[in-house]
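JOB MANIFEST
job_type = single_chain_structure
chain_count = 1
residues = 90
[input]
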Amino acid sequence: MNKKQSRFLVDEAAYAVGIFGVIIFIPQLYKVWVGQNVAGLSLISWVGMAVGSIIWLFYGMVHKQKPMIMVNIFLAIIQIAIAIGIYKFS
């Protein structure tokens, strides 16, 4: 396998992991907004995760890493929505 093929496989794996990473948060988002259940959730933790995703988003933009940009856009949106739901329903 040459360098170009290896890079392609790593990029594809990054997209797959990124998509899974975003999907894994959807049940929590559903629980907060549809069920209005925020028991056991920490606003500080979710805000912290959103800030982390935004920082990684900027890192991905600086380094022109498309998978990192895409994943962290969606993660930040979901994490901010969860944080807002925790604040609203607490």
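[summary]
The chain has a mean pLDDT of 95.
DSSP finds four helices and no strands in the chain.
exit_status = 0
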